[in-house]
Amino acid sequence: MKPTVLVILCAAFALSGCTSAEPEPADEAVVMAPDEPIAGKSIGAWTEEWWRWTFGVPAAQNPELVLDQDCGIGQDGSVFFVPAYDGAKTYRRTCVIPKGKPVLVPLWVIINDHPCPDPTFEPAAGQSLEDFLRQGAIDYNDMVTGLEVTLDGASVDVHAHRHTTGLFEFQAEQSLVGALPDPCLNGMSQSGVGDGYWLALTLSEGPHEVRVTGVDPSKEAFDHTYVLSTAP
Fold it and tell me: 215 and 144 in contact (C-beta within 8 Å)?
């Protein structure tokens, strides 16, 4: 497709075996290193699972479309996915995270998927589908300007947390076709490449606040806040 924008914010990952240079105070949220594996997978691999989860929730209950929907709908995996919201440029979302579970939050992310109704949306001669979709996703996100992220008021070097996937397969739930702003979704098996900025965090009880601001490729400002707390 032409890239679909899903702005998403902050993540928290808590994992046995994860290490940091120094012990962190118990009341802090900790940003994991971008190359640190989580439950045996890279963060990039977890972003693919995040897209599959997002596209698997029916439209009426999908947090991408319903701001006050429970963030945990349809989740029972090793990592908690903080959902995006596609209904406004400015929003505030609250999520309750299972205690001790790693969390993944996309800050600004897109997926470029195929096939699409547009017959011209195809790789050039000799170009692989993966390269075609990857380049489109990266070029689109490179047009985002002024991207800034804070975690509990402290600045995060967001550009150290960019992840681009390889080519992966997904299938959108049929009710999402026409509901999400992705003209390529067709409810059948499709290929995609994701690109964007993600945080993996470990969380104390909280609440913790992740705020993401910037200017999108259409030159419109966005301001997204995620309030993350752990379940008692």
Answer: yes
